Batch of 3 targets.
Target 1
Amino acid sequence: MKKLEAQANRAGRLAAMGEMAVKIAHEIRNPLGSIELFASLLQKELEENVDLKMLCEHICSGVKRINNIISNLLLFIRPEQTPEMQVLYMHESLTDSLFFAEHLINTNTGIDVVTHFAERPLKIYGDPHLLSQVSLNLILNALQAMPDGGQLTISTGIRKDLHGSEIAEIRYADTGCGISPDNMSKIFDPFFTTKKKGTGLGLAIVHNITKAHGGTIDINSSESQGTECIVSLPLWQPAMNAQDKPQRE
Ligand SMILES: Nc1ncnc2c1ncn2[C@@H]1O[C@H](COP(=O)(O)OP(=O)(O)OP(=O)(O)O)[C@@H](O)[C@H]1O
Ligand SMILES: [Mg+2]
């Protein structure tokens, strides 16, 4: 009885802490939005002054980082939130995520971004916000693995699974530091990180979101050569949601 009571207490305390974390996260988000808006306005005013413009870019990329950490925390604390599914085009989503990460790409030294998109559009039935969180986490990991520069290649394709269903494949390949065989078994664990400023939630969230979409995430890596993350998601089929129209043509 005592053990059960202690467990119930602990669960209650954790739930209260979670609620508080959600409140704090939302409180931080509002002023953060203002900082980003004003920094980007200032950046436009400083078109002529390269040095000052650069400082603004640093502010913007810092804000984006904080925002991403908050999104991951919220997704981790409230995994029970049901995804808002709709028909979307993966190439548009990837282009949006790359645009979002542009500041970070520009402020990192010597990063080349190459995209090889399949000719056929990748129509997916998914939650646009969650899927862009997947891309953003994988793009951030790739950039952070290449502090001295390198190449990030994002390529997409379509393959068939064992049952003949079509699967969209999105590959994020970097030429960064790679992952040691020892760490490979831990990278999806929540809070596992090898970074000074990492929270270790990025890949745990990627795993949860791809799973919620009926997909998978695979990672191949060799140390000091680079890493490739492959996200596989079922392509949209009329049976998934007949009444939904594609979000954008
Ligand atoms: N592309 C990559 N190249 C090299 N190592 C990687 C790569 N992606 C992930 N890792 C390793 O996996 C660990 C866990 O990644 P994850 O994204 O979950 O957390 P993080 O990046 O450390 O922190 P967070 O994403 O929460 O800011 C990283 O700390 C890093 O050691
Ligand atoms: Mg990460």
Target 2
Amino acid sequence: MKGLEVLKDLVTSFLKGGESYERSVEEFLRELQKTLIRADVNLKIVSELTSRIREEAFKSKPPPGVLRREWFIKIVYEKLIELFGSEGKASITLSKQPYIMMLVGIQGSGKTTTAGKLALLYKKLGYRPGLITTDTYRPAAYEQLMQIANSIGVPFFGDKNSSDPVSIAVQGVGKLVNEFKCNVIIIDTAGRHGYGSEEKLLDEMRQLAEAIRPDEILLVIDAYIGQKAYDLAKRFHEYTPIGSIIVTKLDGTAKGGGALSAIAATNARIKFVCDGERLEDIEAFDPKKFVSRLLGLGDLESLLKKFEALEEREEIERRLERIMASGKISLRDIYLQLQSIKKLGPLKKVFELIPGLSFMASVSDDMIKSSEDKIDKWISIINSMTYEELDDPSIIDRRRMRRIALGSGTSVSDVEELLRYYEQLRRLMKDLRRKKGLLSKFGVKDLGA
Ligand SMILES: Nc1nc2c(ncn2[C@@H]2O[C@H](COP(=O)(O)OP(=O)(O)O)[C@@H](O)[C@H]2O)c(=O)[nH]1
Ligand SMILES: [Mg+2]
């Protein structure tokens, strides 16, 4: 993104080193502040962010195998993600069909273009989108959206002779759904002229929304307004629970960072971001991916992988600790374990990551392969269990086993095998706990392998 791309060089030169760690950190933070302020991020937000980074950088210690400088970048990475949104990648799957979206926003913010982008995006995802224009103020609006619709081959509805947006929308939805069998309807609206007319914009939106009852209202915000996006996003967020935000023109301004962080601070949901005039230039907003790109971690792939592996490892260790402490393991623990193994990749790698299990990495490859095949089976078996069964597997009799096998597309003996595995682990945990108790009496802390 324009304006923030200098962060990449900052990261690279920081990692290369040169000056003392402390001086490099201060230098880095100073440059980070300058860059963010130039990108129109709110001053207070910037100073809070940098002091949180500084505090954590000097407080926390990198785990073994991670350099201090790498660890610092990880902290920067995490704090920046919080700055741009803590919710993770926006989900763009549609909860029902037909799904009606309504785009609102100031004139020129990019509504019509974005309507086309959304139609193309959902078309690529296998939906049948249809476009409606209700902009009766500008004569060219009709042609503009029609041309876009034609260029991507999706049905279009509008009425040049009407001046009633509500009736156009109602008619259009009926026609596109019933005649053209569209299952995503995207309604473009006229909007108001100029920022500062938010009140009027929201009023107009309210009238249309009451008549059309959209499933989602998307507010289009031009990144040019920078941190001024805060007020608009806040009011919008307070007004509608079905609202989400699209930020456009991130390619054209250095103020995009300000707009995104300001919106994130209102807790409104940023769903899409656009960075170009072409209809392909849209994507679901993913703060993690966004920040990785800003910091150039896409190039520093291996560093990012290292962080991810660390997070997984911490998570697995926390879980193991909990299990060891309670001596109890549940099917839910096993489920999480299977899931994290899947995320982490080959079992061998997983074993290598966990100190207590590193000896397992030397188990023969054949054995590991067959366990990997099992993972998917077991995940679907656990998915087919009821909560009651998960909490107390002892109630799973033959009849339940048959049901679970059927539901998960596996066999009764697969279900039995998983339950046996669970039983073994449960005993092992109990055993370990007893031994641990004994060992600690003799002053031995670590069971280590
Ligand atoms: N560079 C750039 N231009 C955009 C983007 N989105 C829209 N535009 C341009 O912004 C102008 C206004 O867009 P339009 O869709 O007509 O805005 P509307 O008045 O809200 O419907 C047009 O020239 C678009 O090509 C974007 O993400 N990047
Ligand atoms: Mg328009």
Target 3
Amino acid sequence: MTSIVRVRRAAAGESLAGVAAIQAASFYRAWGIDAMARELRENPVARLFLLEEIPGRVIGFCACWIVAGELHINSLAIAPDARRRGHARRLLTEVFALAVAEGAQAATLEVRRSNVPAVALYESLGFAVEGVRPDYYEQPREDALILWHHRLGAIRG
Ligand SMILES: CC(C)(COP(=O)(O)OP(=O)(O)OC[C@H]1O[C@@H](n2cnc3c(N)ncnc32)[C@H](O)[C@@H]1OP(=O)(O)O)[C@@H](O)C(=O)NCCC(=O)NCCS
């Protein structure tokens, strides 16, 4: 059966089990799912976008803030068995369009210096490295690259 893939905004209070599974498979120290759920309930600028395979499961997510005309990407991952098929590019392109519709003009995020796939993804979408936070991450200790995109409305899928 051909599956349909769609992006949708998660509702406050819905199960985040699919996100938890992707986090566990993607990050050494994942952002706690309880903290993410609390953010969705209590922080009006917090958004969680899910990439869903229908019928099926959540195969990716993007947790972010839309605040003061900026999109802050806090966490992004695609399920390991679904990578290298354009899913992250599709998810981010849709998130950017939704953020632009809410007034965002720029986007920013931090990424480990050694995360070659993620840096390549962001640079392919027009982000550029504008700063470094030395030793920002732990386990392993590593610099964070600070990336910005200043023309969010210009991104097309
Ligand atoms: C980074 C990540 C989100 C990419 O997801 P993905 O769905 O595989 O990415 P896409 O298939 O949409 O790839 C889009 C572009 O990103 C780059 N890219 C993605 N994976 C790459 C890899 N392993 N090596 C080099 N470049 C890569 C390429 O430029 C690619 O374009 P191309 O396929 O035309 O060459 C995924 O590898 C992931 O979840 N990693 C673990 C979590 C993580 O590091 N999150 C980011 C934290 S800031």
